[in-house]
Predict the 3D structure of the following.
Amino acid sequence: MTKKIILLLVEGPTDEDALALIYSKLVRKHHLEFDVLHTDITAGEDMTVKYIENRIQKEIAAYLRKNPFLKKRDILKVVQIIDTDGAFIPANQVQQSENGKTEYFETHIAAKNKDRLQRRNISKRAIVYRLVRSEKVGGLPYEIYYFSRNMEHVLHNISEDLTDEQKEDLAFDHANRYSERPEDFLQFLYDDSFHVSGSYKETWKFIMDNGNSLKRYTNMTLFFEKLGIYPSN
């Protein structure tokens, strides 16, 4: 195999629908393969810092089993894309909801179950801290990037909760808009209103501070920059 594979781990099928074709056209020197986790593995109640890398290793192994003609050496790196979900905010920014629903705002989270959401945040923070500092997972180079507070927030500036059907519609709209103009999408990611500049560590420090994980930000441009891909203008 002449082209190396970049294995992208995403949380749901709408992430793949929105990004796969556009990313593949931008990253022409490598094969991009999307592996849909169907869950946020950084926020699972049964997930811990101790086992997160093992969970990712199992996903890599499962991918290779599904593709027996590939070898581990064919994979250039593993890249995980997550939503921040406001996980890095202080505990006092999680409030008990008065309407029985969990709702996200730029200044706080109104939680259906305040204690449970605070526990989720503590666990997710610890797991993401570990992953940000992990240069390799399962013997492969590893990187992690974020959409904050989630992908729809960044790509469409929609902050309210959406149904799966609404997310799917937005994903297809996004793919249709940029599939023939992927360079326009790359330029879009540099929008000053949500682009986080700096080094890999600096962009993660930024999103972990000052309640920023509830706001509209992404460090996704670094994924392309590390591959030497920049907007043409």
